[in-house]
Design goal:
Radius of gyration: 28 Å
Number of helices: 15
Largest sheet: 7 strands, mixed
Number of strands: 15
CATH class of the largest domain: Alpha Beta
Order of helices and strands: EHEHEHEHHHEHEEHHEHEEEHEHEEHEHH
Strand order of the largest sheet: 6-7-5-8-9-11-10
Helix content: 40-55%
Strand content: 15-25%
Number of domains: 4
CATH architecture of the largest domain: 3-Layer(aba) Sandwich
Structural class: alpha/beta
Shape: elongated
């Protein structure tokens, strides 16, 4: 029912009003991208302004006639509003325009329905759509009213509306039970990773920031990635081997958008819990987007809503290939820890810097050291190689391995307590000072330019 879509795009009229009473205005260009991402064929974009929305039709009588004329002239099948419409406004508009009307929430739900591939994703989208539809059943089935008088006309005592509401309620309960099982499976997987001491890194960010492209480059996966809003819907987890750290799990998640429908946040809570329980969040930002600051604020707002605002974050400024005089680099804070990585996921420039930054943050700081390992401890040498800690080695006259390693400070303390001889140790703050500066000239120039 929810996942059948026409093969060709539907001729659509887009409507966007500037409402003076609204503190946060919707982005008209983003709305057009949403419509194209849903497969619509926009033929007209009607704009205007009002101090307050009309209670009956959202738009005024003059604008309503303008929309009706555009629908008639283009033989449009669909009118899309870049606003949240009440059920009564939606019904009144459809009755007057003689075509289907969708608001911003319905449009986003439709895109999610098209993108859902996994069983879990389809369940979550269906739950969101059912909750949205449950408020829009009134007056849809009055011609099938079963409460009629007369001999032989008395039915089950329920109107078709009541039957539909009951069936929707039953289906919502069924989906919630299935999603509860999914939530338990995910929780069990997280506990297994915790027992194995494998860290989880979650990609978050505004939709179309390049998360899936970066995910594919880091993990050599083949997840669907496209230059469109909400190209990724189903959460994907892959193992990645980080330099000087070892294995970790990286998760690609659904992108966020301004005024993300509440139904979606609730329905995708099982998936979003992966983000809230991660050890590190990679906040991917499209640095070539003029609205990147507002988009970052939107992501932070959603993360706060799902309880993930306390998880450590590393900002990943993607698409530096679209900026002038900006090269991939790491920005560090005053303590020398990575704060932001500038890179290009489409060609892989700077991804090795990102892996180094992730390793440092997960490890709490990397140190360089020279270890002296006797021949009888060759197993320890093999373990260090497996974890990618060793950057070079020599053998002295006594047959001991002199290993040049770069590893987490906690791991070095463990080796020290096990009796391994440490010849030299370079602390993390010295390494940070010898690396990137806290601000590069190119990034500072870009920030002043974008401001």
């Amino acid at each position: 029912m929810f996942f059948e879509r026409p093969d060709s795009g539907e001729v659509s009229i887009l409507v966007h009003l500037k409402i003076d009473s609204e503190a946060e205005q919707e982005d008209p260009s983003e709305f057009e991208e949403l419509a194209l991402s849903a497969g619509a064929m926009p033929v007209d974009y009607i704009t205007g302004s009002r101090s307050h929305p009309s209670p009956s039709h959202f738009v005024g009588s003059g604008k309503l006639e303008e929309i009706a004329a555009a629908v008639h002239a283009h033989k449009a099948e669909l009118v899309l509003f870049n606003h949240a419409l009440s059920p009564s406004q939606e019904r009144n508009l459809e009755a007057h325009l003689k075509c289907r009307v969708l608001d911003r929430t319905g449009l986003i739900l439709d895109i999610f329905a098209q993108r859902a591939r996994s069983h879990e994703g389809k369940l979550q989208v269906e739950l969101a759509q059912l909750r949205h539809m449950s408020t829009r059943l009134k007056r849809g089935w009055t011609h099938l009213d079963r409460q009629k008088g007369g001999i032989g006309l008395r039915g089950a005592g329920e109107t078709q509306l009541e039957l539909d509401q009951r069936m929707l309620g039953q289906r919502i309960k069924q989906i919630n039970k299935l999603l509860e099982k999914v939530r338990g499976q995910r929780s069990q997987g997280r506990r297994s990773r915790e027992r194995a001491e494998i860290a989880t890194v979650s990609l978050v960010g505004y939709t179309n920031a390049g998360k899936s492209t970066l995910f594919n480059y880091l993990t050599d996966a083949h997840c669907y990635a496209a230059d469109q809003l909400f190209a990724t819907l189903d959460s994907t987890l892959r193992r990645i081997d980080l330099p000087n750290y070892g294995p970790a799990i990286i998760a690609d998640t659904v992108g966020f958008i301004s005024h993300l429908p509440h139904q979606l946040v609730e329905a995708f809570r099982a998936t979003l819990e992966e983000t809230a329980s991660a050890d590190l969040l990679l906040h991917v930002v499209d640095c070539a987007d003029e609205c990147h600051t507002e988009n970052m604020a939107t992501v932070t707002e959603v993360l706060t809503g799902i309880g993930a605002n306390e998880v450590p974050q590393l900002e990943v400024f993607n698409k530096v290939d679209l900026l002038e005089n900006t090269e991939p680099h790491i920005q560090r804070d005053s303590s020398g820890m990575p704060r932001r990585v500038w890179l290009s996921a489409v060609n892989g420039e700077g991804t090795e810097l990102l892996q180094i930054a992730i390793s440092e943050l997960l490890a709490g700081g990397l140190v360089e050291a020279t270890l002296s390992v006797p021949p009888q401890q060759s197993r320890l040498r093999s373990q260090l190689y497996e974890k990618g800690y060793i950057e070079g080695e020599t053998v002295n006259d006594q047959g001991c391995y002199q290993l040049q390693v770069r590893l987490p400070a906690s791991e070095l303390e463990r080796l020290r307590s096990s009796g391994v001889v440490l010849n030299t140790v370079t602390p993390p703050e010295v390494l940070a000072k010898s690396g990137e500066s806290t601000e590069s000239p190119s990034s500072a120039a870009w920030q002043s330019q974008s401001a």
